[in-house]
Amino acid sequence: HLLLETTILQKWLTVEKKMAVEKMDAMLSSEGAWSCQYKDICDMDELMAPDCAEMFMMLLQAIT
């Protein structure tokens, strides 16, 4: 098992962290990231989540 070797595991974790941070930065800095994803549907405060919120939660779920 390759991931049981400390050096290989550390390299893999470093690559995973780098990719996750890059993906998160791209999501949060995209042009429409902070616009409301449900603005055309409803004016309810609980639906005023930005577009990037769902993408961020999906990234967190993929990591864990």
Structural summary, described in words:
Pfam families: RINT1_TIP1 (PF04437). This is (spotted green pufferfish) hypothetical protein. With 64 residues, the chain is mainly α. The protein has a domain of 33 residues. It is 58% helix and 0% strand. The radius of gyration is 17 Å and the shape is elongated. The two termini are 21 Å apart. The model has no long low-confidence stretch (mean pLDDT 83).
Write the layout of secondary structure elements.
Elements: H1 6-29, H2 51-63
Helix pairs in contact: 1-2
Short descriptors:
2 helices, single chain, mainly alpha, 64 residues
Fraction of residues in helices? 55-70%
Biggest sheet: strands, sense, closure? none
Q: What is the terminal-to-terminal distance?
A: 21 Å
Mean pLDDT, rounded to whole units? Answer: 83
Radius of gyration from the alpha-carbon trace, in angstroms: 17 Å
**Helix/sheet category:** mainly alpha
Unreliably modeled segments: none
Outline: elongated
Number of helices: 2
The beta-strand count equals: 0
Beta-strand fraction estimate: under 5%
Instruction: Tell me the series of helices and strands, N- to C-terminal.
Output: HH
Protein name: (spotted green pufferfish) hypothetical protein
Pfam family, one: RINT1_TIP1
GO biological process, one term: regulation of ER to Golgi vesicle-mediated transport
